[in-house]
Amino acid sequence: MRGIRDRRTWRWLPRRLRFRVLGLVDVVVLWTLVAALTTAGAWWGLDSYRHHRDYCTSNRDLRRVGQECIGVTAEAYSFDSDLGDILGRIEDENERARTSGKQVVSVAVVMPYTSRSPGAAMSQDLIRHSLQGAYVGQKAHNEGHKSAIQLLFANVGEDLSHWKTVTDALAARRGGDAPVVAAIGFPNSDDVTLEAVEKGLEPAQIPAVSAVLSSREMENPYLFKVSPSTDQLVDALQLYVSANEIDQKNTFMIADIRPDNYVANLRAVFDKKFRKPWGITDDKVERRTETYQGIKGSEEVTSQVFGGAVSAMCAVDARTVFLAGRDADLQPFLEAIDDAPSCHRGPDDEPLRILRVSTGRAPDTETEEMHDFAERNSIEIVTAVAVDAPRWEDGDGDERVPKAFATFARSYDKLEKGSNALDDGYAVMYHDALTAVGTAVVHVMHSGTEDVSHNDVSDELRRGSPSTGCAVGCVSGASGLFTFADESAEAEESAGSKRVYGLWPVCKPVPIVTFPVKRHDKSPLYRTYEVPGKNACPAP
């Protein structure tokens, strides 16, 4: 029986070589052939590895940049284990959209998809809630209309800096069977967000609908905002304090000093609205302003950063304090007050009121520990918010509750049953951003346009009006009815000044929240752009 070493059994070897004695030349030729094939195979494998090692997915939709996977994809990718369920649901809904027989359009959710590094733009909870809100909006649109929306996961990185990779990919997807018609998301009011729109989306004429941007510095003809601006949030505070008994003499302002667009804009708005009439002065002798070094993202700050500011505030016995900072700064601020003996007040003293603004009622700002801090130090926190989910969930029949909120909340409850995930406001706002795009798509198709494009959606987003009961078309958002205000025609533009476009929500309600005690608000509900006696918004 012939063994494997018997070359007469090697069928791949030419017959003349199997049955003859190999000479030196034959051996050299044979081994040269083997070496050549081995080298070619190794080179192909190495080249293939080098070609694919920079990508996270086989279709090369996501490129590996450091520890992140950057790019745009319609398929669920394991950015983080916490997102597995919602990414899978969206991928399944995308597949149903593509096989529905309807016209399909794509909408990109532009934001970070991980939160591993200190200072990341969004926490993992906010990322999950945002995607859940967008999914609820996607599913509602696809089940109720003749068009279908496919959501694209567009990861710009934890610090938002990889926007060019994303915007280039979106520009390339404007055609085809499921063309990109808009992008939603954009979580932070900062320079990199504006750069992404100005240099990435505007040249491609893709409208960006931000869910939570509020700084008035976020101005671009292709940037629509679902959140009230900082001016409007502070106007709601003004309406509240004018209708309620708030100390307007013993005032103080504490502001984050970082070069952060959002907090810098908020500080400027507080200055503009309250400084002179409320006696907030930076006079060298009777100074009533202080600063601190705040945080953004998942970093933690200690109460020590507020030490000097709190000492100065309590030294002048301030009773009304304006806090120009982010949600994460509130707890260490209260801890600093609790630790400062000069801040301790008697039970009969006028309470210390902290006036601030926020997207929603983040759970971290209303914990039992925060409740105890506030009660022990006779503190009342007054916040103007874009979303007041706890009150809206309890307010069945209340005319201040947005009509579409209950339907949204029931759908969301299937994703996060019994949780307080709606409280931070992100799920509601991302839902409303997608609903705004979906509403525009529906109106474009009603006008007779069969193939909806990004230009059609951009134009339609500017057309709505809340007048005559929204006859021209409103967005039925979970945070209230609204349209977008185009201020470009009426803006006064002087030489060298920055162009104003507006595109902020019209008739958006801005509730006021008090903590730890829920007080009955004597002021009317503030609605953006509504001027009592001159115009009137429809019920939210």
Automatic annotation (TrEMBL):
<keyword id="KW-0812">Transmembrane</keyword>
<dbReference type="InterPro" id="IPR028082">
    <property type="entry name" value="Peripla_BP_I"/>
</dbReference>
<keyword id="KW-1133">Transmembrane helix</keyword>
<protein>
    <recommendedName>
        <fullName>Receptor ligand binding region domain-containing protein</fullName>
    </recommendedName>
</protein>
<feature type="transmembrane region" description="Helical">
    <location>
        <begin position="21"/>
        <end position="46"/>
    </location>
</feature>
<keyword id="KW-0472">Membrane</keyword>
